């Protein structure tokens, strides 16, 4: 299976197919609005461009730091950080209900579990996962 075979539902209810991003670098990141790393939204927005697609996946699995509903999350990100990149509906990244994109990324890299909010997978323009970044790692490789 390729990453391009997968899709997600954005926070407005639209299906987004990853195949629509073929030929671009993709940065997949699990996000939260009440985390010490939440300010990374600003850096993620700066990285988002024609050649790098940032996809945010709000998740409440770490310290209940994403308690809002999809509309609350979108409003928070837009108002406080000017986020324009796609955000999914709230997902799980670990466990039996982990989103298929996260299952694929973890299986492809040998990562057993996502450890915290704002951990990132960088997917190259050919669809291969090239980097896994923990929450505290900077985005200078993008």
From TrEMBL:
One function term, GO molecular function aspect: peroxidase activity
UniProt KW Oxidoreductase keyword: yes
Designated name of the protein: Glutathione peroxidase
Secretion signal span: none
Listed InterPro entries: Glutathione_peroxidase (IPR000889), GPX_AS (IPR029759), GPX_CS (IPR029760), Thioredoxin-like_sf (IPR036249)
Keyword list, A-Z: Oxidoreductase, Peroxidase
Organismal lineage: Bacteria, Bacillati, Cyanobacteriota, Cyanophyceae, Nostocales
A single BP term in Gene Ontology: cellular response to oxidative stress
Family label: Belongs to the glutathione peroxidase family.
